[in-house]
Amino acid sequence: MITFQHILSHLQGVITTNGQRLLAIIRKEFIHIRRDPPSLVMVFIMPVLMLLLFGYAVNTDVNHIPLAVYDQDGSQASRSLVASLVNTGYFDLVFQAGSEEEIKSLLDSGRARAGLIIPPGYSRDLKRQATATAQLLVDGSDPLVARTALSMAELVSQAQSRELRLAVLSSQGTALPPGPAIDLRARAWYNPGLESLKFNIPGLIGLIMQNITMMLTAFALVRERERGTLEQLMVTPIRGAELMLGKLIPYIVVAFIDMGLALGIGTLWFKVPIAGSAMLLLALTVLFLVFALGLGIFFSTIARTQLQAMQMTMLFILPSVLLSGFIFPRSSMPRPIQYLGNLLPLTYFLDILRGIMLKGTGINYLWQDVQALAGFGAAVIALAALRFRKRVD
Amino acid sequence: MNLHQPNPPHQVAGAVPGEQPETIAPAYQVAPAIVVTNLSKNFGPIQAVRQVSFQVPAGSIFGLLGPNGSGKSTTIRMLCGLMRPSSGSGQVLGLDIVTQAEAIKASIGYMSQKFNLYEDLTVVENLYFFGSIYGLRGAALSRRCRELYERMQLEGCEKQRVGTLSGGWKQRVALACAFIHLPRLLVLDEPTAGVDPVSRRLFWNLLEGLAAEGITILLTTHYMDEAERCHVIALMDRGRLHAFGPPARLMAAAGLPTLEDIFIEMAGKGED
Ligand SMILES: Nc1ncnc2c1ncn2[C@@H]1O[C@H](COP(=O)(O)OP(=O)(O)OP(=O)(O)O)[C@@H](O)[C@H]1O
Ligand SMILES: [Mg+2]
User: Fold this and answer.
1) Looking at the predicted complex, does its ipTM rise above 0.90?
2) pTM
3) Which CATH number fits the domain A65-189, given the four candidates 3.40.50.2300, 3.30.420.10, 3.40.50.300, 3.40.1710.10?
């Protein structure tokens, strides 16, 4: 018979911690970490490597679009148009074509992504009518490239402060929605440098830290289970909370060093400044790390094997990427999806990271995020401690 | 090598189901260390342990024998509070195995069938870890560790990582860790599996020394020479208790010259 009394005594058993036993576990975990230099190196190289790789790969800016030009006019004016396109930095002049067919085939083969055709009367028309038409062909198969090419061309034509009208055509038949020019122009003006990197780096730091720290502890109990040492621990007076905290605390130190490395790469290498208080950022980071490490431990109380623990962390990473506002702005998500995002601690941590790093937000505006993170952290650790049974059946 | 001890010095309070418990010799007129009544454990359709009852007198070496899968480890795990029995009851050191499992855990020493120490920790580190878990500290802990180095013949390897030790040494370290808090009962699941004969004899000498001090030892083994060194044995077969008593008496009762013969006869019966 399971009575209320039983449940109470179980809860008490789980929650009470004995300082000496807790210390013993912490010391043991530190020895494990120290005795495994390859893993330790991995742990410190991983955030650096991932941040560098993703920092460049997740760069949503498009530049160096290969441009082919068929200049039939060959005038001062036409050369200046080409030069101003190239000077934006978004185009690389890679081909001087001799015919429209050549431009077509360059686009078809993908050797050029944009083709500019300047008709014979270009400079004459400009002088005579103050309007002239040049044609920009864009490879529409990659919308990001196409939009950037279009918005840049649009900007250039305006910057030339003439009634230069660009007839824009999309080759390869796809992907250009009708009338995107206005929208695109607006975006370009809002963020003329299009420095998505600045926006992406804080997000990346949050995501990478979550994934690495979660994996640090996801194996914590599974490894002991697989090696048979967990059964030994179960036949000692050890308590759930002691084991969970004892496994978690050493990794807070490790994860904190990781966070320092990631922030270092972000600010020194990618030159994303920390506009607000670095101390506040580090303090709130600890809160998030405790959650991520706690989640890892929780997974490892469920998983029977290291493979299963790995799969669980992978399963958690996917919604984190999609719903936290890491890539896609949450404001443009449907309501229910936004609510789902509210269940992810990363959402709050990204708020904190971007707020402090980009906008210099202070604690006053971050209380909600802090409360959410603290709540999630306490919840996963309590769950893990409750899930840990000192029995094998 | 003579592992055989012709006359176990202990009288036994044994209880094969349906048999009268024997009179207990005066020296052991203390509460039995383990009492088990109709203990059963099912894993779904598998009846791993069926209606097992026995008593183990305090201070004796009690051997649980039986072929693979006969339910030895399952019985042991129920006694240690690692598993709940499906039915039946048991007391270990006077504590109930269901309701007082945590108290049992604090007062027994356990070596599981699988090697159970941290291989990347040294001998000292393992001993200190388990010592602290059991509440030893400071000078008392280091004194206890020094005692154990000597007693378990571990001198010279204190600073060595357990993973680099040979089988016999590993098992003695595991015994030292299980014994660090001076438990009155040691529960050892196949402690000498895969250990060479010389180390096994050394290990058994240690066990007999402990038993002589009144510590009860429950162990499982597949070695007949070890079984004959036990004061009391229980033969298990497919979850059932097949025979119980001092080895000499079991052999006499069966009219067979060795325990191995009893074992083989039991296996033969199972075939039909
Ligand atoms: N956790 C479990 N879940 C399901 N079945 C189990 C479990 N543990 C043991 N069993 C089954 O119970 C039976 C008894 O197993 P047990 O480990 O107690 O045998 P044993 O006598 O210790 O064998 P061995 O000599 O191989 O150690 C076996 O059929 C085994 O497969
Ligand atoms: Mg077994």
Assistant:
1) no
2) 0.78
3) 3.40.1710.10
